[in-house]
Design a protein that fits this description.
alpha+beta, 4-stranded antiparallel beta sheet, 4 strands, globular, binds zinc ion
């Protein structure tokens, strides 16, 4: 059984609790997402998306609790989807 990771396996940063947008095709209310802009996974994504799809976009490492599996969420800028980060500890985020 896979442990729920607390940190990103690509950069070691703490994963943020991220609220899944309403209407998304997931059943989960929350995902765990790496929001480190220097994360190698995220940085590589920009180049990859440009080469594969000629799109200025990337993706962030994501853990889906209900599936106990890693995934990714697509983003189109450093700031994209940050508003969905849940700050459960006062001042701990952003
Ligand atoms: Zn990371």
């Amino acid at each position: 059984m896979t442990e729920t990771p607390r940190t990103c396996p690509h950069c070691g940063d703490e994963l943020k609790t991220w609220r899944v947008p309403p209407g998304a095709s997931w059943n989960d209310e929350f995902f765990l997402v790496c929001f480190n802009d220097d994360c190698p996974y995220y940085r590589r994504g920009w180049k990859w998306m440009k080469e594969q799809y000629n799109q200025d976009a990337s993706y962030r490492y994501t853990w889906i609790p209900s599936m106990r599996a890693s995934s990714m969420i697509p983003v189109w800028s450093d700031k994209a989807t940050r508003e969905m980060i849940v700050c459960d500890k006062g001042g701990g985020c952003g």
